[in-house]
Specification:
GO molecular function, one term: protein folding chaperone
Order of helices and strands: HHH
Subcellular location: Membrane
Radius of gyration: 25 Å
Strand content: under 5%
GO biological process, one term: protein insertion into ER membrane
Number of strands: 0
Family: Belongs to the Asterix family.
Number of helices: 3
Keywords: Membrane, Transmembrane, Transmembrane helix
Structural class: mainly alpha
Largest sheet: none
């Protein structure tokens, strides 16, 4: 079964085979350090929220760990991301268990 539309419109000289970018080169997908930085920030803020009973630190930690989880790659260490997330959730829960009053922003006091 052959088409009667004339010559073949495909151009074989324009076909380029896919070559994956090596991991160490700049611009490769694995050099984005945003999830790592946010994971560390989330752990720092959650520890501050737990130790100093600051509700806003717990919420910032939860925000950072959610962004870190959203930007993480499949081959990242899921145990560390999950532990950071659980630590930030526990910081929020513990700060509200110790003081159930609504949170007052730090700039209003």
């Amino acid at each position: 079964m052959q088409q009667t539309g004339g010559p073949d419109p495909r151009r074989p000289e324009k076909i380029h085979r896919y070559k994956p970018i090596p991991v160490g080169t700049p611009g490769s997908p694995s050099d984005d350090a945003t999830p790592d930085y946010l994971n560390v920030l989330g752990m720092i803020f959650s520890m501050c929220g737990l130790m100093m009973r600051l509700k806003w630190c717990g919420w910032v930690a939860l925000y950072c760990s959610c962004i870190s989880f959203a930007h993480s790659r499949v081959n990242d260490d899921t145990k560390q991301i999950l532990s950071s997330f659980m630590l930030s959730v526990s910081a929020v829960i513990m700060s509200y268990l110790q003081n159930p009053q609504p949170m007052t922003p730090p700039w209003s006091t």
